[in-house]
Amino acid sequence: MKKILAFFMVTFLLANTSIAKHYRYISIDSGGMLGLIPASLLADIEQETGKPIHKLVDGMMGTSTGAIIAALLSIPAQDPAAPYSAKAVVEFYKTKATPIFEAATQSIISNKFAQFTRGKTDYSQARNILKTAIDDIFSEFKLSESLNDLFILSHDKNAGNIHIFDTKTEENLLVGDAVLASASIADAFGPTAIRFTSGETRNFIDAASMGARPHVCDPTAYLHQKINKDLEEGDTATIYSLGTGFAPTSQETKRLMAKSNQISIIRIQPEVDHLATMKFMGNLIAQNLLAADTSEETIEGMLEVAESLKTSKEYKRMLSDLKTVALERNEL
């Protein structure tokens, strides 16, 4: 009888004792072709751990080029069982992304000239190239089919604020539509119209199109807000924040990094020398043209920047953490 009572007591205690959990997320900034930098780091992590990114983290958030990367690594686009590898994402930027960004460059120049001469702007050609590429990659996959939590950040022109598409609140939305809404650089592609299940249609643009306002297009701060709402008491989380050197770290993310709470942020932000040109010119068109540079020289430069980041203490910590995750999950 005592053994039976003891058994029921232990069962009761286990059922009513919550075990603290630690969650891990990746946040990826905007930056067009500069997305090659975080993609290269993630490819290195996959090689070092031997496992895909979606098995090492609980979710990802990205904006613009970061949304493309996060979605490629989360949605089973090529194969019903698995998403792109990070290595395949690197190859995507080196080859398939070139027509997209070349079209963006031409569109930015022609439409800025049209605005200057009071002519008619036309985003259709560049937009068709972007939409075709995204449709080919993501097909009919919905956000709900993501292999982990996926958050895609965009700017809602109608409401005038940030909107986050995610796997829980817009589960029936096509992932390609959400990515298109996030990657629609205003000067290159124009806005993307999204029709919600409620019947309402709203227009979205790339949050980085909002200009020199880093807090607007900083996915790390918004991801922090999302996670913070859902964490149970005692749970903790880490955000690996991957920058491109395109958008500076916002004051909000700096504040969150300095604050000791349930969520820690490991910020890996490259220093890209040719960004000095953008800062000197100090305007949005210069930023967009830089982000759309597909020259071999620029691509090689980005890969060199990624290689140098592998020696940083922040990246070493990220790699060490994710190797531990792989071991804990018996994935190595």
Oligomer: single chain
- End-to-end Cα distance, whole Å, is 45 Å
Point out poorly predicted stretches. Answer: 10-15, 274-284
Cα-atom radius of gyration: 21 Å
Overview of the structural elements:
- This protein has 332 residues and is of the alpha/beta class.
- Helices cover 47% and strands 14% of the residues.
- The protein is built from 14 helices and eight strands.
- It has helices at residues 2-15, 36-49, 65-72, 86-94, 98-116, 124-138, 175-183, 186-189, 219-230, 251-258, 275-281, 284-291, 296-309, 313-328, and strands at 22-28, 59-63, 149-156, 161-166, 192-195, 201-205, 236-242, 263-268.
- Strands 1, 2, 3, 4, 5, 6, 7 and 8 form an eight-stranded mixed β-sheet that branches.
- A hairpin with a 4-residue loop joins strand 3 and strand 4 (161-166).
- The protein starts with a helix and ends with a helix.
